[in-house]
């Protein structure tokens, strides 16, 4: 491999690493937007955010795969490899790692918020279903009101 080929490979590697870092930054913003929707009452915005998450996840995965192709087989210590071979990429790698940790935490939190909303909705549906069952026999076959015997009349003591 010539020095020029090495320079091109290094430039491509750094460009790829910077793209991966930028994609992770965008993912953090996306997850923060998702969290604001979950905490507020803007659930109609969640579907477009989910679609954007899938697209960005695919992009990040492709960038990570491309990064791996630059590395020699069996490279487990990315920071150590960078220090020895491409020291100018170490800062971007450290930021990439920090962003990946932030993405993980935000995603965990958002998942918990989704579970809370899901439980709340299930409880609300249970109450509505129970109320619907209680009023299902409100009228008899003759069309006359059929009051449940276990309840009291409105306004009575």
UniProtKB/TrEMBL annotation:
- Tell me if Iron is a UniProt keyword of this record: no
Q: Which domain of life is it from?
A: Bacteria
Q: Which residues form a coiled coil?
A: none
Keyword Glycoprotein listed? The answer is: no
Described purpose of this protein according to its UniProt entry: Required for the efficient initiation of filament assembly.
Q: What's the name of the protein?
A: FlgN family protein
Q: What family classification does the UniProt entry report for this protein?
A: Belongs to the FlgN family.
Name of one Pfam family that matches: FlgN
Species whose genome carries this gene = Sideroxydans lithotrophicus (strain ES-1)
The UniProt keywords, alphabetically, are: Bacterial flagellum biogenesis
Name the Gene Ontology biological process terms. bacterial-type flagellum assembly
